[in-house]
Amino acid sequence: MRYKLRISLFFIIFVTVGLTQADDDRSKRVMALSSNMILWVVSHTEYAAPDPPSVEFIDQMALRQRCYPGLDLTHVPQLWGIYDPVTATIYLDDDCRLDDQVSASYLLHEIVHHVQVANDAHLHVKCRGRLEGEAVTLQAQWLKEKGVVNPLEALGIDERTLEIISSCLH
Q: Is the pTM of this model over 0.90?
């Protein structure tokens, strides 16, 4: 019995240390990637570079609750990330794989929002759709530069949808 208990404790400690190491590696990678993405965004826009935001990985339900508090979440579409301008924190879906260009592009999209807010872009547009359109356009451009042949298709949208996202409907 003691032998099994020692093996179980060893396994729990080993797995916990392994998960902590994986989390540390992911955190280091996301911070380096965030800094590089900020530099990319400012090199493709007129914005100044802010400090990198915090980035947290959370499960899909928590992501939806942050984005749509108080709503029935049964029909809310999947989210890949959101930016909280109050805390300067990006929340990404736990399933975001930073080694996959399309998945990583959602971090870039939220980085664009972080840069926009840091530069007060929201004070200089007619509507938020312009900011969202800029984020999607830069996301697609980044993907194209990374070798994705049809970036909008990879993101699941088309030119018309991008126009709708970017429009101000007043």
A: no
